[in-house]
Amino acid sequence: MQNYWLSDVNYQKSFIKRIRESAEKMADGSVDIPAAEKEYAEAMLGIVAKYGKLSDYDGNGIYVGYEPGSENENAKIGVKCGNCYLNESEKVCKIIKEEIEPNGLCRLAAIPDSLVNNTEKPEDDMEDEEEEEEDDLDDRLNDRQKKMYETYESIVEEYGIFDQSSKANGAHYAPAAKNPFIGEGMVCGNCVFFIGGGKCEIVSGNIEPNAICKLWIIPEQLIKVRQ
Ligand code: SF4
Ligand code: SF4
Predict the structure, then answer these.
(1) Ligand number nearest to the C-alpha of 218
(2) Read out DSSP for 42-105?
(3) What angle do CA 124, 125, 130 make, to 5 degrees?
(4) CB 58 within 8 A of CB 96
(5) Cα separation of 50 and 43, whole Å?
(6) pTM
(7) Averaged in consecutive runs of 10 residues, what is the pLDDT profile of the chain (227 residues)?
(8) 85 lines ligand 1 (CB under 6 A)
(9) H-run or E-run covering 14
């Protein structure tokens, strides 16, 4: 998946500019927080005014679930105390007792959309997608192929991706023009490592959808037996 946040410098600059503008607005009280979110934040302030600041298991029955910056995987997209309407200062929150960090987060956050980088998916969504992908592979591959898949992935993690050569680190890649197995469906486009856009997870360089290499893992239902 292309990571716009890391790859597009102009995008980074415009996002940082947007964050600064919104942070300034927040500091001078003119932040454009949606009406419903503002009402929610004010309701929380009302609860705190009546019952005192909150913490987990304090008998108020409201679970705060604060996590420090080191555990908040969504800080990088702006979902963090530093952007929360309920943040009083770097270390103080208006509604929870615990000392906070700018990159921390609790489940009661009120963060204006304008401070969240929506082009990055929250970590939970990415984890869900990865789990779905794994479930999908579980359904499509047999046990031997699953083992091969795990093995190739761990080799690549330890030694880096294969090159296209026929040497020791090579995948023995055959471009489409030299692939004699196209008619049998044995092509990169059917391989579980093919990402699309000319890329493969485990082999470097431009990868053609109708090429093949010795590391192919193709679900059996996509392989046509030659008559
Ligand atoms: S995210 Fe939670 S802990 Fe952080 S400032 Fe907002 S309400 Fe307070
Ligand atoms: S066959 Fe699979 S592993 Fe080999 S280059 Fe093509 S996509 Fe990558």
Answers:
(1) 2
(2) HHHHHHHHHH-SB-TTSSS------B-GGG-TTGGGT-SGGG-TTB-SSS-BSSBSS---TT-B
(3) 95
(4) no
(5) 11
(6) 0.46
(7) 41 48 54 79 91 88 90 88 91 94 93 75 63 77 94 94 95 95 94 92 95 96 79
(8) no
(9) helix 9-27
Q: Are 44 and 95 in contact (CB under 8 A)?
A: yes
Residues whose CB is less than 8 angstroms from the CB of residue 167 and which lie 6 or more positions away in sequence, other chains included: none
Give the pLDDT confidence score for residue 204 in this predicted structure: 96
State in Å: Cα 104 to ligand 1 middle.
Answer: 8
Task: For residue 85, give the nearest of 130, 40, 150 by alpha carbon.
Answer: 40
State the pLDDT at residue 139.
Answer: 87
Q: Which of 47, 43, 17 is nearest to 110 (CA)?
A: 43
Q: Are strands 199-200 and 194-196 parallel, antiparallel or unpaired?
A: antiparallel
Ligand 2 site residues (CB inside 6 A) read 171, 173, 188, 191, 193-194, 200, 202-203, 207, 211-213, 215-216
Give the C-alpha separation, 14 to 21, whole Å: 10
Q: Calculate how far, in angstroms, residue 4's C-alpha sits from the geometric centre of ligand 2.
A: 25
The reported pLDDT for the residue numbered 86 is 93
